[in-house]
């Protein structure tokens, strides 16, 4: 399983633990009227995703979608349709609008899309932002916070889906043997990438600290940044005019 993981502080974990123990919080039980919404939503998914692309949308919580040591929250029912619209507008439609893009997307589309309401919290104090499994499943997290006008939320979702979709591609085709040799000495040791500042990752020739964790993650991160970041050219390709920063000097050496 390929994962995008970000470290969070122990304080945040503690707060989340305390908040989850409040006795006056209870699970909301679906009322009879919700059954109509569920049926309508399922019909929408069937017509627009399953029949159209052969892609199943899983929004009801099933514990085998995550590991036993991971804590997750299911999505709220009223955010599922808006999230599917976001996926269509920002991920699927761009492929359909470019030459040969639709053929490429249909050929590589994952069989399952999993929607989770919050982030995936791990035992080691890290957070998983998304996953791609064997080229067949992509998991979206933090769906309950959906707000396409929020740049931080939107960029996080786009980076995640493009990253994970890149995994579905390279899991089907092997990366070129020479890819790993581009920056052979820049990779971090296992489990230490989140201690690397972004500036140092750039000096090593990577778009992000997480890209230093393995060649596969380097490929997926590079693809994701290239597709979702409008400033990719300026940040990672164009050299500074005076070349006064460490990142610029490292790139020029």
UniProtKB/TrEMBL annotation:
Lipoprotein recorded as keyword: yes
Pfam families: Peptidase_Mx1 (PF15890)
InterPro entries: LP_HExxH_w_TonB
Signal peptide region: 1-23
One MF term in the entry's GO annotations: hydrolase activity
Keyword Hydrolase in annotation: yes
Swiss-Prot/TrEMBL keywords: Hydrolase, Lipoprotein, Signal
UniProt-listed PROSITE patterns: PROKAR_LIPOPROTEIN (PS51257)
NCBIfam families: LP_HExxH_w_tonB
Protein name (Swiss-Prot/TrEMBL): Substrate import-associated zinc metallohydrolase lipoprotein
Species name: Marinoscillum furvescens DSM 4134
